[in-house]
């Protein structure tokens, strides 16, 4: 077990990000992310994960451009997407992702390329279906049209419908299309299944039926006044004919999409579209492919991964549950059984022919690692490219009672050196979402880095958190600030009673919705010595009209100018803020646009509130580049040290 590293060593740790099992259950492959040699970015590679606990994982691919999107064909060959150059092509200077095939023995070869690059890929029944970005119009002239546009210096995009961007990238002018073919026939001439789809396949989740006859995919439907939803459709691979499998005015259907091994059913998620009175919800939706009949299974579980049992009579899902994310087995007749009983957060489910299940297991106190789950629910570690870490503290489950009697629970990280004689300073860390939960390891928001620097960290699940039934979401729906604030203060008060925690040296921070709540806390209490607010919502009316998905927020808050914007916007409590604040924002953040950070910073400055602004011109919602992540933690720790611990302010060396 390795000692827990400092931030500079931490960003260099390899990270297991996916898991795929071959159809015969004999090979397990993962995409692993690691620091590039110049330490300025991350790269990816495919690794073989041994099924024998005594063996060592080994790297399958190695290129400067990296590899991702690993999927097995029915024959056991490995597909992946990469920008790596093709050595068989002279003067090849392409820099867009192409589709590659790696046989079990032999070298990888490129099997398909498109002028705009290739995205996701799925295979079954001898057929490969992949997504590609294609300019509208004749695909035969696309390469020339792209070059002409580039040579003319044109970057403009004409939009005729909402939305125009997503998280950190612009949408258009290319459209996502699905193409299909057989490896043996060559995929450069793959059939276009979805000519001129518009924006219908943006963020599509799709799967191929076992017989290779159809692809099942989500399909965006655009409605009047900027509204939209997603249906589930089946596309005939031979003809391109499309039929709708699931549609509802009050719901949208999303990924992951999974087809049963016997080809009779498809499973996906169904999200209820919330409004001012009705909260959002998510359930498992199963459709009979022959009759089109659909039904919900699993009750109030929010599934985030879906995989069929080899017998086709049950579905495995993972769902947030009381601060964990267990694996559940749901039979087609509706019986729900929890399979894993530990504190793990599972993802990347890979059912094996022998009845076992492979997955990535992580937790608040454990980075993702591959495991085997036996039919009885017991879990065994597999060899991993990620080292086990000796954590600099302990993890304890805590709870408190809210004003309405609801139990509010969370995780408390306490540094190893904290005692009643040497109590640790306290940091309240509020999760994003808002429909989310603290139940997993986060490479980006890691409490153990704060514990290594001496802080006790509370990770609470207040109103709107998942894993506690629909009523927990209902409690805060349309009432974000007041109810959530009361929950946070209740569980904070409970933790501050502990002798190993200093109840005077306390701070709060959060990102995204957690940043919204950090701003709300700043305007409704002066108990904290410092507040850090990252990618935060400040002026709700301004945010709701400039974010990348305005229609989503309008459903809950109403049309611009409604009473909820005024009542719930943190900026209306500016005159109450006296706590020093560190504002952090990335310019490429389209979910919470930079205008929120700029307006908050100016409002604090013009009001005389002691504040600093950490600005990332080239980062999005999360701050992902290793150097910038180091600067983020350096600055946060320096700010907290100054205001919470009383040390002199010194700008971080990483920013000098």
TrEMBL record:
Q: Report keywords, A-Z.
A: Hydrolase, Signal
Question: Keyword Signal on this protein?
Answer: yes
Q: Name one GO biological process term.
A: proteolysis
The molecular function terms in GO held by this entry are: serine-type endopeptidase activity
What domain of life is recorded for the organism? Bacteria
Q: Where is the Peptidase S9 prolyl oligopeptidase catalytic domain?
A: 441-644
Name the Pfam families on file.
Peptidase_S9 (PF00326)
Supply the InterPro entries for this chain.
6-blade_b-propeller_TolB-like (IPR011042), AB_hydrolase_fold (IPR029058), Peptidase_S9_cat (IPR001375)
Keyword Hydrolase appears in the UniProt entry: yes
User: Know the name of this protein?
Assistant: Peptidase S9
Write down the species.
Planotetraspora mira
Starting at the broadest rank, the lineage of the source organism is: Bacteria, Bacillati, Actinomycetota, Actinomycetes, Streptosporangiales
